[in-house]
Amino acid sequence: MAITTIIEAIRVVGPQFISNPMLDDYIEIAKLNTSTQCFGAVTGVKYMYAVALRVCHMLALDVRNGGLNDGNDSGDSNPGMIRSEKEGQLEKTYTQSNNDSNFGYLNLTTYGKQLIELIKGNCVLPITRLVC
């Protein structure tokens, strides 16, 4: 089966999101954030795959946030991130890896992490500083 639409790509990547009533809206938002310079024409498989991953990433975050979509979510927390655990006298604190720190938001879901790998394999990323 060849992927010829973004919906087909989502059906492969995140079939649980196909029935979401806001899917078309998420697709339009994801298109705005997906570069044709990086992934090629909007009819290309890489572009559709990148959009599908971004859509699934956003929907997965929405699910983690409780699927509110009520306008009351400030959007500045890291949903699902466990920073510390404590039970009795035992306490564990976790730190987030600095790997891919430029992609912090995308590191929150497996879909985002897949998109990071796709970006790294297909895009020329800017160098922000030179080390001599």
Task: Report what the structure shows.
The chain has 132 residues and is mainly alpha-helical. It has one domain. It is built from five helices and two strands; from the N terminus they run ααααββα. The protein has helices at 6-13, 23-32, 36-39, 45-64, 110-122, and strands at residues 84-87, 90-93. Strands 1-2 form a two-stranded antiparallel sheet. Helix 4 runs antiparallel to helix 5 (110-122). The longest helix has 20 residues, at 45-64. The N and C termini lie far apart (49 Å). The model is unreliable at 69-79 (pLDDT under 50).
Could you outline the blueprint of secondary structure elements for this entry?
Blueprint: H1 6-13, H2 23-32, H3 36-39, H4 45-64, E1 84-87, E2 90-93, H5 110-122
Antiparallel strand pairs: 1-2
Helix pairs in contact: 1-4, 2-4, 4-5
* Rg over CA atoms: 17 Å
Order of helices and strands: HHHHEEH
Strand content: 5-15%
Low-pLDDT sequence parts: 69-79
The first-to-last residue Cα distance is 49 Å
The computed structural class is mainly alpha
- Taken from the alpha-carbon principal axes, the silhouette is flat
User: Biggest sheet, in brief?
Assistant: 2 strands, antiparallel
Helix content: 40-55%
Number of discrete domains: 1
Strand order of the largest sheet: 1-2
Q: Please, how many helices? A: 5
Mean pLDDT across the residues is 81
Total beta strand runs: 2
